[in-house]
Design goal:
298 residues, mainly alpha, 12 helices, globular
Length: 298
């Protein structure tokens, strides 16, 4: 009986993953008025790490030795902490979550170039074309509302911070592929969140006061980020890998900025101009250019 539901679930899983991933930017926007961005992540990461550790114990996953565990902590600090901290900071300082999602959506382009240098993957003309088109798209999105007079909103500070976070997850992805790809998802994930937690503890100590107002929105955002994003979305991705549906995720990932923009419009009233919508379409085209598989030769 259960098998009759498996195929429909797998068919819907890539789109579900994209929607779940897009909610990460909504969470950043929802939590911003109630908890400082670094404090939020300093709470989220240890909880997620404990959850992954409990799963690892429950499934009797093998635990890595010292060197693999160290690689996992470095990858985790990049993929989670150094990636999300600038994005949450930028959203807290007024960068629209949809714009943030758009910039992060260029991660596949940056990952391709970093992989060329670190793991010797080939860079072709389509990668250069995709990068050029993507940068044009980002320019179209940020230019109508770019402000140089303040730190808040679509500004050089928030835009560059988000680019920095995008570079961090691209670098972390390549590092993970080179040094920690063989680790079990649960035990390796637990060590990843150890690294991410350490980074955020230091960031809070240096830059924040630990403000958390205890409101419903604050707790809801925290619970959602731990259960739906850190656990649910990653687990769903693992199912897709097992079922061989990763290509579907790659083909749909360009929808994340648009989905995030719609969500933040409905929930928070964030709006985009016609030029910014055009920029999103251009960026989607850039990601499709890079992810497009060359035709098979017979």
């Amino acid at each position: 009986m259960a098998s009759r539901f498996v195929k429909p679930f797998i068919a819907a899983a890539p789109a579900l993953f994209v929607v779940m991933w897009a909610t990460g930017f909504v969470v950043a926007r929802l939590s911003a008025p109630h908890v400082e961005p670094f404090t939020f992540l300093a709470l989220r990461f240890p909880l997620a790490g404990a959850l992954f550790a409990a799963i690892a114990v429950a499934v009797k996953a093998p635990w890595p030795g010292f060197r693999p565990a160290l690689h996992a902590t470095v990858a985790g600090s990049l993929i989670h902490a150094v990636y999300l901290a600038p994005i949450y900071w930028s959203v807290a300082h007024g960068l629209p979550a949809g714009v943030s999602a758009l910039i992060v959506g260029l991660q596949p382009l940056l990952t391709a170039f970093l992989a060329a240098g670190l793991v010797k993957e080939r860079i072709g003309p389509r990668h250069w074309l995709g990068l050029a088109v993507g940068l044009v798209g980002v320019g179209l999105v940020i230019s109508p509302k770019l402000s140089w007079a303040t730190i808040d909103g679509i500004t050089p500070a928030t835009t560059l911070a988000t680019f920095g976070g995008t570079i961090a997850i691209a670098l972390g992805t390549v590092y993970q592929k080179r040094f920690a790809s063989a680790l079990h998802i649960a035990s390796g994930g637990a060590w990843q969140y150890v690294g991410a937690s350490i980074v955020m503890f230091v960031a809070v100590a240096l830059f924040e006061e630990g403000r958390f107002d205890g409101s419903f929105n604050a707790w809801f955002a925290l619970a959602w980020s731990v259960l739906v994003l850190s656990l649910g979305a990653i687990s769903l991705l693992m199912i897709l890998i097992r079922e061989g549906a990763v290509a579907k995720v790659s083909s749909l990932i360009f929808l994340v900025p648009g989905v995030a923009a719609v969500m933040t419009y409905v929930l928070f009233g964030e709006t985009l101009t016609a030029v910014q919508v055009l920029g999103m379409a251009v960026c989607a085209a850039a990601v499709l250019i890079v992810n497009r598989r060359p035709p098979s030769r017979t």
